[in-house]
Design goal:
Elements lengths: L5 E6 L7 H9 L5 E6 L5 H7 L4 E5 L8 H10 L5 E5 L4 H10 L3 E4 L5 H26 L9 H18 L3 E8 L2 H8 L1 H18 L5 E6 L2 E7 L6 H16 L10 E8 L7 H20 L1
Parallel strand pairs: 1-2, 1-3, 3-4, 4-5
Antiparallel strand pairs: 6-8, 6-9, 7-8
Helix pairs in contact: 7-8, 8-9
Length: 294
């Protein structure tokens, strides 16, 4: 089976290149590694938009005296791509600082060979992939596949900041599964988990792919979405309940799914946080849930 090509972006801020890199790249005879070269650090972002690399080699041995700020600037532009720093200075402090700040490795030129460079790049890609998987797991609810509380709040804060800049209204929907304890007690926790997973399916069907969906805790679900002419509170209430009724129409059900919901409005003229919107929507949801029992 043919190995996937590893695309490597070399950035060195040295017009015309250098003898060092000519020699090292000549030593790397691995056909699965393909190099691209930019002579200016500022061109990194432009290059990755044209041909995204798997790893970046950042030479800080610059003609004008490189500095750690060069790495910080590059990292801020491409935090999801592993960066390996290569320097002519035997500076352990720089190496440690670079790794703590996000670099995957820091190599000293006098110690670099084609073999060491190739191994470092493969290790860097592997570590970056592992970190990405850990980050995804830290914000995803394992049972439903929706964002967990942490993931939802992170994305909700970003969406609210963007809405404030664009003077855009948002709707936050707070949904709570009715009588989940009854399902757990009468049918077992497996059926309770099924009710939660089915609620996640209802959320995906009732909302759009661009909306932020999450499970905050046990039976609490939430969605944040843009508010426009066709998407308003009445539309969402109707769409959501129609989706629940459709699910309850499936044959051989052991329980009926019932969900109470509350909706709060984000008004860019009266800024509020994700926490404020959650509290308001939760209060509205609770009143509706209580009215069902009265």
């Amino acid at each position: 089976m043919k190995s996937a090509v590893i695309k490597v972006l070399l950035a060195e801020d040295r017009p015309g290149g250098s003898i060092f890199w000519e020699q090292i790249l000549a030593e790397v005879r691995d056909p699965a590694i393909e190099f691209f070269h930019v002579e200016k650090i500022v061109d990194i972002y432009k290059q990755i938009t044209l041909n995204p690399p798997d790893v970046i080699l950042l030479d800080l041995s610059l003609a004008n005296g490189g500095s750690f700020e060069v790495f910080q600037k590059a990292y801020s532009m491409v935090p999801n791509i592993p960066i390996i720093i290569v320097t002519g200075n035997d500076d352990q402090k720089l190496a440690i600082q670079a790794v703590l700040e996000g670099a995957q490795d820091c190599l000293i030129k006098r110690d670099v060979s084609g073999f060491i460079l190739g191994r470092s790049m493969r290790y860097a890609i592997g570590r970056q992939r592992h970190l990405k998987e850990l980050n995804v797991l830290s914000i995803i609810d394992e049972l439903t596949g929706l964002y967990n509380r942490r993931g939802f709040l992170i994305l909700a804060d970003q969406r609210i900041k963007l809405a404030a800049q664009k003077k855009q209204s948002l709707l936050l929907v707070f949904a709570d599964v009715d009588d989940l304890k009854v399902i757990n007690d009468s049918l077992g926790h497996h059926h309770g988990d099924l009710a939660l997973m089915e609620t996640a399916h209802v959320m995906r069907e009732a909302f759009r792919e661009t909306d932020i969906l999450g499970r905050l805790s046990g039976d609490e679900f939430v969605a944040l979405l843009a508010c426009n002419g066709s998407v308003n509170e009445d539309f969402l209430q109707k769409r959501f309940q129609e989706t629940v009724l459709e699910h309850n129409g499936y044959l051989e059900r052991s329980f009926k799914l019932s969900i109470s919901m509350g909706i709060s409005l984000y008004d860019p003229q009266k800024p509020s946080s994700a926490g404020d919107l959650l509290l308001k929507a939760d209060s509205i949801m609770y009143d509706r849930k209580r009215s069902k029992k009265s």
